[in-house]
Structure formats: C-alpha cells, structure tokens
Amino acid sequence: MTPSGLHLLVTMGNQAVAMSKSRRAYDWIKQHIADGEFAPGHRLVLATIAAELDVSVVPVREAIRQLEAEGLVTYQHNVGARVRMVDVSQYRNSMQTLSFLEGAATALSARSITINNLQQARAINERMAHQLDHFDPHIFTKLNKAFHSALFQHCPNARLLELVKTEWSRLGALRDSTFSFIPERARESVREHEHIVRLIEQAAPLIEIEIAAREHRSTTLDSFLAHEYPDGAPAVPVNFDLPVNLEELS
C-alpha cells in the first residue's frame, strides 16, 4: 500500500471513531432529556458531560449541535447550551404531531407483535395500575413510555419510528408535570392501554388500532389544555380522521 493510501485509511478510521463518540454523546444526552433527568432549562456543561462519557469536548459539542438542530437544545452566547424550555404551544404541537406519528407506528407494528410482546405490554400496564394508589408521576411516565414502546417498536418504517422517538424526546420531562396536573388522566390512560392491547390481540383492522392509539394521545392533550385553560382552550383540531389505509402500508 502506498503512503498516501495508508494515510487515507488512517484518516477514515479517525473520522469513524470521532463519529462514534459523537453518536454516543448524542444518544446519552437525548436519553437523559427523554427520561426527564435533564429537565427543560437544564444547563448542558460540555466538560461535565465529556468527563462522564470519558471523551473530549469535541464529540459532545457535535452532539449538542445536532440536538439543537432537532429543537431539543438551545444555545445562547455567554450562557451555553440548555435543554429547550417547553411552553403550552410547543407542547400542544408536539402532542398533536405525536398522536398521528405514534398512532400510525403502533398500527403498522401491530401485525408483527407477538403474544410475548402483548404479555409484556399488559404486565407494564398492570404496574401502572398499581402506581395509581401511590402515584409517582416520574415512575408512571417511565412505565408509560415502556408500554407504548412495546407496541410501536416493531414498526417496519424506520423513518417513522425515528420521528416518534424524536417527539417523545422533545416532550421530555413535561410529561411528569402533565400527570401531576391531571392525575385522573393517568387512571383513564391505563384503561385505554388495555383497549389498544385488546384491539391488537384481536387482529382488528389497522385503521381501528391507529385511531385508538391516536385518540389516546389526543385525549391527554385535551385534558391538559382543559386544565391550563378552564374557560376554554384555543380551538385546535386534533381528533379528525385522515383518509389513510394502513392495511395497504403494512
């Protein structure tokens, strides 16, 4: 091999390692945002994160730039990077978007879900039901995410699956406060979970599964808006049907 060829291989190898470290930092930060450990307004200190991951600040900086492009992080001169604050308007937009994305992903995943997957989803939902008498919004939120992930994770559309996960991350810790504001919604949510599982179990038409999953998400949004605007929230169409035949997409 010529010296120039060897140099090219070394350069490509170094770039791959750098990208791998950047991806690891990206996944780590994004997961902490999704889990609520990095709440809205949390300052992301590059040196601290780099030390935690045992990398330099360079891949961490690249990861934060990517998260900023996705709208999960904001950067301000002389202040640094912070997890984006979520206002009611942003929450409403993300929840409405997620209702469609997750509804479609759940429906498209339905035919690939096994009996074991359904048993896992039911077991998680039972744990959520047990939480109702000693309610902890943070624990309930983690279980809620695990439940829905068990149902949509087999979606064959990788791009759709990535969009769903991005919206979950965008909402982040605000879900905890949502269930704190409207704890009665948590009880309703558990009942609706069982309904969705039953539809999948009975091999219901995909459009029925999609609508049930979408309306489940939309109802949480409606409850939140009713709490925030007791005199009536600004009208935003959420529960409307789309002429989509998911049977043709599966």
Architecture overview:
It is a single chain. The protein is mainly α and 250 residues long. It is built from eleven helices and three strands. A three-stranded antiparallel beta sheet has the order 1-3-2. A hairpin with a 3-residue loop joins strand 2 (73-76) and strand 3. The chain is globular. Residues 6-16 and 236-243 have low confidence and may be disordered.
Spatial order of the strands in the main sheet?
Answer: 1-3-2
Structural class: mainly alpha
Unreliable segments (pLDDT under 50, ≥5 consecutive)?
6-16, 236-243
Q: Kindly state the mean pLDDT as a whole number?
A: 83
What shape does the CA trace take? globular
The number of strands is 3
Number of discrete helical segments: 11
Provide tags for this entry.
250 residues; mainly alpha; three-stranded antiparallel sheet; 11 helices; 71% helix
Topology:
Elements: H1 3-34, E1 43-44, H2 46-53, H3 57-69, E2 73-76, E3 80-83, H4 88-110, H5 115-131, H6 137-152, H7 158-171, H8 174-181, H9 183-201, H10 206-228, H11 246-249
Antiparallel strand pairs: 1-3, 2-3
Helix pairs in contact: 1-3, 1-7, 2-3, 4-7, 4-10, 5-6, 5-9, 6-8, 6-9, 8-9, 9-10
Gist?
By secondary structure, this protein is mainly α.
